[in-house]
Amino acid sequence: MIYTSQPINIAGVPVVVDDLTAYATEMYQLYAAHLNSNLNYVKYLQRSRTTRPEFIDRFIRAYECNNEHDAALVKTLQDYIDPLQLVGRSIDPTNAIGGALKDYQYMRRDWCGIPVNEEQIELIEKPLRDILQHEAFKRQPERSLFIGAGVGRIAHDFCQDFTEVYATDKSFSMAWNYHRLAHAPIVFYDISNKNLLSLDKTAPQFTANFTPPPAGKHLEYFVSDVIHLPIESESLDVLYSVYFSDVIPLKLLFPQVDRVIREGGLFIHFGPLDYFFEEPTELLTAEEIVQYFEDRGYQTIANETVRTVHLEKENILSNKIYDNWFFAAVKMPKQAIAAPAEVLSPTTVLSIKGALRFSQEYRLTDEGEEMVDTKLLLGEGNDFEGAGAMLIILRLIDGQRSIEAILVELKESYDLPATEDGKILQHLKALVDLEVLAIV
Hints:
By secondary structure, the protein is α/β, with parallel strands linked by helices. The protein has 2 domains: about 325 residues, Rossmann fold, CATH 3.40.50.150; about 90 residues. Helices cover about 35% and strands about 20% of the residues. The chain contains 13 helices and 15 strands. The strands form 5 sheets. A 7-stranded mixed beta sheet has the order 7-4-3-8-9-11-10, with helices on both faces. The chain has a two-stranded antiparallel sheet with strand order 1-2. A hairpin with a 2-residue loop joins strand 1 and strand 2. Helix 1 packs antiparallel against helix 2. It starts with 7 loop residues before the first strand and ends with a strand. About 0% of the residues have low confidence.
């Protein structure tokens, strides 16, 4: 057992959260609102039967079936909520569950044995499995965790690769459907109302069937909030984030990732960077994420893209294609991590080490003389081209003034936006690392 607190069992689903009542109330409200919306939509469809009755009847049949599942879900949570917490509480419009349950889309792909969907799963799982053989990963793959595990298929398939496999998701419905499926098939409809090839492709029925893991193996699927991951520190050999790293900002995800992975363990991301939040400073590129991990003691061993058709449906005219980013990094032992470089801050005082050499290139034409480029001559292939602006900054460095004071003087003399401060600090840091500048 790697939990830091005792799970509470709700209808066979282990739930490990700080406040069970608050969590259950939040989930209940989302699912109840979704169910009520669909029940009202069925009433609307029933009033519209005179137009396109065959089409409408297919939709009514599909919604009524899925609504039965959703009603059972709502009833499951009902005993764990605090009705007073529902009073005056609105649904967060940014919550991914608020608009519609996505469980049926993933059950169709993951548990219905559809050939095109099995091809996508194979494309996803192959790099996730092959990377375990990388020479830089020297641990025995004993214990893994899949975060944002959805309806559990990918984590489930890796029971054959590890001694222990754990999976977690904040969505109660995803975990609940996985545990239900382990006991009996689930019949459901995948509802689409546009981009359809023909009427018979409207809201097709599917049956999700569970494939038991290898003998003696088991997927421990629990509900939790990854920002407060309730498992022991340094307890994992591999942490998989499949279609999840873009759900919450990296600055919130990384501390938990780093805490639970053992030295020599792997962090593995697979999926797009589609981002489910809007803060521009957190919408990192793949390159920035690689640098973020490397700056914190990880060694990159995979950095590539894998193209898949996402949640492909044969009954519709449009499907989404992802160039999924596949990134894997090993958490290096502390003794193998170089001592962190000194950090620059606005109060840092810098001095120039020795004499700086630079060259300036000019262009002479009939119209006069024009300076084309300024280059800092640092030697050993480290020459700094386009250094005209940096030379202005370097002339202000005197071993007495702080970087903040220099920036103030620059802004008084030039039209320098505040957004440039970070870039200037990066350039100065690079010159410190090259031992051109020294911290006083």
